[in-house]
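Q: I'm building a small set of examples for a reading group on sequence design. Run inverse folding on the following structure and report the sequence directly after it, with nothing in between.
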């Protein structure tokens, strides 16, 4: 953001909330008392999905040059910029999310205590972002899971510690689907969003293995570049029907070496990664397009709708037909 502008301050009272970076929800933002012009226009949503787990999704355009501020609660904040730029300060650290230097990167921020945040709104700037806030109770409940990720462990002990990582195509797909789910107000919307957010958490953790010190000691830079390109190939869907031998030949490894390195890189075997991605695509098609369960099974690579329903239930905790009934 290079243009000069006059920034006015406006304080947000969010001391009892998880703390994202705006104080609005719905079709238009809260309006400041000075001139009756809204801060932003567009669509935003903030939801409490579990105790100490909150979702924030915003697809807006700034309507004023103004600075908004508030308080963040202790925990972990995950920010997924999908489009546009955001100029935000957490504590005493300023970030230009989504700009040329950070385009395509996510951010995890650790807060061991309450601290201030502020955002500079620049009139005419558009942005699309999904954020998750994990409070202390949620983190304590999932301590065993999080302990398997040294990057998170090192972050959590340091106030305002930050980790950036590259958003995968699959993670961007998951985060983007949050907006469609928020737009359809059905009795199952909260359940669907909670499930989707847990999928996002799993993908974030998989992405953080890219910066896991243990993985760094095991995988050389050249191997990591090859694996990043290979995962992008899988995400494109071009290799959905390929055998393990064919996939291994594409990356120039033996099948056993590919499986070992891919598990180090993502935390999953190649086919487990593929299966989860295809099930996710089938779920989005059920939710948004209302396709039949048999068509969803075919989309996910299953010849048997019954086997698909079993795999779907194990992955998402519900039968696929429920999604069609509540569109």
């Amino acid at each position: 953001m290079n243009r000069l502008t006059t920034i006015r301050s406006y304080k947000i009272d969010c001391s009892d909330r998880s703390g994202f970076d705006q104080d609005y929800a719905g079709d238009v933002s809260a309006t400041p008392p000075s001139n009756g012009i809204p801060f932003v226009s567009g669509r935003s949503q903030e939801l409490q999905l579990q105790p100490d787990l909150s979702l924030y999704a915003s697809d807006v355009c700034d309507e004023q040059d103004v600075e908004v501020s508030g308080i963040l609660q202790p925990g972990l904040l995950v920010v997924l910029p999908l489009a546009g730029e955001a100029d935000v300060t957490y504590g005493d650290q300023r970030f230009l999310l989504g700009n040329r230097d950070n385009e395509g990167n996510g951010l995890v921020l650790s807060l061991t205590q309450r601290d201030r945040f502020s955002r500079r709104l620049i009139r005419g700037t558009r942005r699309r972002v999904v954020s998750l806030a994990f409070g202390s109770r949620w983190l304590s409940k999932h301590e065993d899971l999080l302990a398997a990720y040294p990057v998170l462990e090192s972050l959590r002990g340091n106030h305002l510690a930050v980790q950036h990582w590259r958003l995968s195509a699959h993670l961007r797909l998951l985060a983007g689907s949050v907006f469609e789910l928020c737009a359809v107000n059905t009795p199952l919307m909260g359940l669907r969003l909670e499930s989707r957010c847990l999928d996002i958490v799993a993908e974030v953790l998989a992405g953080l293995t890219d910066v896991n010190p243990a993985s760094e000691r095991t995988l050389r830079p050249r191997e990591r570049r090859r694996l990043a390109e290979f995962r992008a190939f899988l995400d494109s869907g071009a290799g959905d029907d390929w055998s393990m031998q064919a996939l291994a030949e594409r990356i120039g490894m033996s099948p056993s070496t590919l499986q070992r390195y891919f598990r180090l890189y993502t935390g999953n075997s190649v086919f487990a990664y593929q299966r989860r991605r295809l099930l996710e695509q089938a779920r989005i098609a059920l939710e948004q397009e209302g396709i039949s369960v048999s068509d969803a099974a075919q989309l996910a690579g299953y010849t048997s709708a019954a086997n698909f329903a079993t795999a779907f239930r194990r992955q998402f905790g519900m039968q696929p037909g429920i999604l069609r009934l509540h569109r």
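DSSP finds 13 helices and twelve strands in the chain.
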